[in-house]
Amino acid sequence: MKAIVVTDEAAGTAGMTLVERPEPEPAGNDVVVRVHASGFTPGELTWPGTWTDRLGRDRTPSIPGHELAGVVSALGYGTRGLSVGQRVFGLTDWTRDGTLAEYTAVEARNLAPLPGDVDFTVGASLPISGLTAWQGLFVHGRFQVGQSILVHGAAGGVGSMVTQLARQAGAYVIGTGRAADRQPALDFGAREFVDLDNDSLDDAGGVDLVFDVIGGDIGKRSARLIRPGGMLVTIAGPPEARPADGLAVDFVVEADRAQLSEIVERVRDGRLRTNIGRVAPLDDAVAAFTPTERIKGKTIIRVHP
Ligand SMILES: NC(=O)c1ccc[n+]([C@@H]2O[C@H](COP(=O)([O-])OP(=O)(O)OC[C@H]3O[C@@H](n4cnc5c(N)ncnc54)[C@H](OP(=O)(O)O)[C@@H]3O)[C@@H](O)[C@H]2O)c1
């Protein structure tokens, strides 16, 4: 089968190559999925799981990309809940070969059924941004109706999902980002917008929850914007500053079938909008991930039509 592989961490996305690899066999609790569409997060090339397995052994050349939408083509002997021919989508294990390939093996529990009226391209764009937003808000952030939330990167992949989910759940949302992100963030449901290059972040102070996707200095400055009893939720690594009288939590997104099903229902009924910037075939994936100009929105690779 055709697959993208990486062998050199220092080379980043420029080190991606399209090669022939053996098709995966269905074993244990895995299903094999014929990948129709695949999502990739550039950050994953810096994560240890891309380069080593759970025992710390080198697993290169490894296939990146951990979001998929496709059709189950084979079942492992211990698989329950899915059948051959079923449309599925989900988030695959970070420490195993991923989804920038014609086929991938994935534990059945990491997948959810993809309704027939949701396109594979849309399905592959949802797992990381949708699950991260859901888990950050409702699981780690313990969101409550009526809270005020500052969402960094509110026009980006995760931030746009957080903004929509929070607004629909009854939050007052303040989005942040670059000047050009103002209107997109307001369109996703933010009531106010802070342009991080030109406005004062401190003016947005006194919120119940900050959802940080940026980290660094912006993460540090965000801790002091949180009301007593509030929370800083970050996906940009361990927080460098914590709220004086509140909690800070950082987490890594996990696969969850029930949450995926909730998210896709919201896409079907129009409550959630995805943020896809470009769709490219697998043969053009390397070029798509090393663009010469900034692409707004997520790049999805259409592996099979
Ligand atoms: N821990 C986890 O489980 C987890 C899960 C998902 C993602 N992540 C990580 O979270 C980060 C965000 O992911 P994403 O998919 O949402 O990325 P994204 O689509 O690029 O969104 C990030 C947004 O923040 C904006 N932004 C970044 N730095 C900024 C700055 N200094 N000032 C103003 N705006 C800034 C970006 O604008 P520009 O595009 O103009 O820079 C973009 O609109 C990535 O680092 C990703 O690896 C972690």
From TrEMBL:
Taxonomic superkingdom: Bacteria
Keyword Oxidoreductase: yes
InterPro entries the record matches: ADH-like_C, ADH-like_N, ER, GroES-like_sf, NAD(P)-bd_dom_sf, Quin_OxRdtase/zeta-crystal_CS, YIM1/Zinc_Alcohol_DH_Fams
Keyword presence, Oxidoreductase: yes
Enoyl reductase (ER) domain span: 12-301
Keywords: Oxidoreductase
GO molecular function per UniProt: oxidoreductase activity; zinc ion binding
Xref: Pfam families: ADH_N (PF08240), ADH_zinc_N (PF00107)
PANTHER family: ALCOHOL DEHYDROGENASE RELATED, RETICULON-4-INTERACTING PROTEIN 1, MITOCHONDRIAL
Annotated protein name in UniProt: NADP-dependent oxidoreductase
